[in-house]
Design a protein that fits this description.
Helix content is 61%, strand content 3%. It has a two-stranded antiparallel sheet with strand order 1-2. Helix 2 packs antiparallel against helix 4, helix 3 crosses helix 4 and helix 5 packs antiparallel against helix 7. The protein is globular and about 50 Å long. The chain contains eight helices and two strands. The longest helix has 24 residues.
Length: 189
């Protein structure tokens, strides 16, 4: 059986993979900068007041209103700064790469949902312009791209498999009882 430590060792720093993974470093550090920027902004009154319309209509985070306008912004800001720290640390600690990217996915999936849950953000129509959004809607719409970036970082951070084999297949060239030893070793890896 695999131990928790051996499973954690199978995660990867996204940009250290085979093939053309190096450009993912740029995506990682851009996301770190974005999360730092978004996180710091949440500690301003202007930002706190600006996100009330989104939070109050969200089926996922409307519960944050128990902290008040500033409190809900502080919670979100702290989470965004945590994600920035995890993504930065993820350049060196593979499991943090996956965790930070996953938290980014959750964050942008929730903010993308604002596009559908915030009244007046989008006007849907069957005309030649099936959807039109205001400035806030355009701001939220860009989160689909950031969601995709976090998804790419997350997938690249996951343990890799080659076909049906493990990432470090055992090789055996012996005979007799050594076969049982090899099978036992595989089961404990």
């Amino acid at each position: 059986m695999r131990t928790d430590a051996s499973i954690l060792k199978r995660f990867h720093v996204a940009e250290h993979g085979d093939g053309p993974y190096r450009p993912l470093a740029l995506l990682r550090w851009v996301m770190v900068a974005i999360f730092i920027s978004f996180g710091i902004q949440k500690f301003t009154l202007q930002s706190a007041q600006g996100i009330v319309q989104f939070i109050s209509h969200s089926p996922f985070i409307s519960w944050l209103s128990v902290f008040g306008v500033r409190g809900e912004a502080y919670v979100l800001g702290a989470v965004e700064l945590l994600i920035a720290a995890l993504l930065a640390a993820g350049a060196f600690v593979p499991v943090l790469s996956a965790l930070g990217a996953f938290m980014g996915i959750v964050t942008f999936a929730i903010t993308w949902s604002f596009f559908f849950t915030t009244p007046g953000l989008v006007k849907w129509s069957l005309s030649t312009h099936p959807m039109a959004w205001n400035v806030a809607g355009a701001f939220v719409f860009k989160d689909v791209v950031l969601l995709c970036v976090c998804t790419v970082l997350f997938v690249a951070s996951l343990p890799r498999r080659r076909g049906n084999e493990s990432t470090a297949p055992a090789v055996w060239h012996g005979t007799g009882s050594e076969a049982g030893d090899l099978q036992a070793k595989r089961l404990t890896d």
